[in-house]
Design brief:
Elements lengths: L3 E2 L1 H14 L4 E9 L3 E9 L7 E5 L2 E5 L4 H4 L3 E7 L2 E7 L5 E2 L6 E2 L1
Parallel strand pairs: 1-6, 2-5
Antiparallel strand pairs: 2-3, 4-5, 6-7, 8-9
Length: 107
Amino acid sequence: MSITISDSAARHVNRYLAKRGKGIGVRLGVKTTGCSGLAYKIEYADESAPEDIVFEDNGVKVLVDPKSLPYIDGTQLDFVREGLNEGFRFNNPNERDRCGCGESFRV
């Protein structure tokens, strides 16, 4: 089981954590919502919880709760810029379908 982070995403996370002045990495997970059933969650993590599964890639710690891992195992977190928009993108090999608005997915 693994979660990876692209060079672009790692640079963005490290810059943001340095600007923030605290934090150990990012926390990834899923929540039940939307028309397809699941949505990604991402937040900056200041500390690790005892149940967290911790991955480290490109110098960034990625914390995942055990309940979310089966849905996002093998995912690469990327950071992309398209025109005036920028943001994190989840490249998830388990994703089978995505809703029309792009906010939720199904495995």
